Amino acid sequence: MIPGPEHDRDHDTILDIGVIGAGSWGTALANLLAHKGFKVTIWARNNQLVDAINRQHTNPLYLEGFTLSNNLRASNSIVETVVGKQMILSASPSHVLRHVMEQARDHIPVGVPIVSASKGIENDSLMIVSEILEDVLPLRCHPYLAYLSGPSFAHEVAINTPTLVVIASYSQRLATKVQRTFLTDTFRAYTSHDVVGVECGGALKNVIAIASGVVTGLGFGHNATAAIITRGLNEITRLATRKGANPLTLAGLAGMGDLVLTCTGGLSRNRTVGLKLGQGMTLSDILSDMTMVAEGIKTSQSVFDLSRQLDVEMPICDEVYRVLYEDKPVKQAISTLMSRDPKEEMRFYS
Q1: Residue 243 CB: number of other CB atoms within 10 A?
Q2: 317 pLDDT above the threshold of 70
Q3: What average pLDDT does range 144-165 have in this prediction?
Q4: pLDDT at residue 12, rounded to an integer
């Protein structure tokens, strides 16, 4: 039996943290930890970005306008970023997560927390992030995996806006340890045992946010947005519970909380994609203007395939997929949703 966090007393004090991924979210979390006094090393592929973080204490590509802590330094070596660290934070986009963690896995120290802040579902395998990490990382790492999710724009974390998230892990001791590591006066973390529910909520809300942006772009108003959010939550919960999640998790921060934020917030990249689609732009034109990843685009393909594999009805997600990948006109997609057969609202929860 591999000893887990409940039996490991050698790594209670975290002083040195490695962060894999220097996008807006990874940088915001790394900076939060650095401001708490931790020594933080963040990995970035781009040598110019590494230089900007180390010399100017800024991330001009993904978190422009913020001065980063002196406790935060960057490296273009993933080995240097993880070797000797007392906690690893993984914040790569989900579609490159497997490749990135394959480079890191043999260098991660034994018995240190590995906290994932990625959200998504892999296209080919249809794995959620927790399944990807368990597939890629050696068995010795599995007891130390935790997952951070919830309503949290990187920009607002960077300016210390009050933010609430959830830390999910199969180990309560590990979840509590990670919770304490992230807590600040403006960043509050709760714990959860429901890894699958937290992961599904974080991934699927991005697809629904594209739909929310579409109805806003079409000028349909608040009624339509509320309907998309509510029925979208229904779809998320159906798929998550089919995978073994607790439906109450989807009523919390990683479900409804993250969904509301991503479907209504102006900083939401996924909502912005939908908004521009609703206004008549093509997906290729939208993507050419974006420097950051909108996870919902790739995740919509995964959800389309996964819902069929698990025999889960997800009409909103289906229409998002058809708009993105089959060039279905957005007005026709809305018409398809509105003309479906009448149903009982909560029949899928019986």
Answers
A1: 15
A2: yes
A3: 98
A4: 56
The whole-angstrom separation of Cα 190 and Cα 177 is 11
DSSP calls for 138-154: -GGGGGGEEEEESS--H
5-193: CATH, from 3.90.1150.10, 3.40.50.2000, 3.40.50.720, 3.40.50.450: 3.40.50.720
Q: Where in the chain is the domain with CATH 1.10.1040.10?
A: 202-343
Using the predicted structure, report yes or no on whether residue 10 has a pLDDT greater than 50: no
Catalytic sites, residue numbers: 205
- Cα dihedral sign, 97-98-100-106: positive
Residues 197-238: tens digit of each pLDDT: 999 999 999 999 999 999 999 999 999 999 999 999 999 999
The arrangement of secondary structure in 202-343, i.e. its CATH architecture, is Orthogonal Bundle (1.10)
Residue where the block lists tokens 């034994």: 110
Q: How confident is the model at residue 5 (pLDDT cuts 50, 70, 90)?
A: low
The angle formed by the CA atoms of residues 89, 288 and 217, to the nearest 5 degrees, is 95
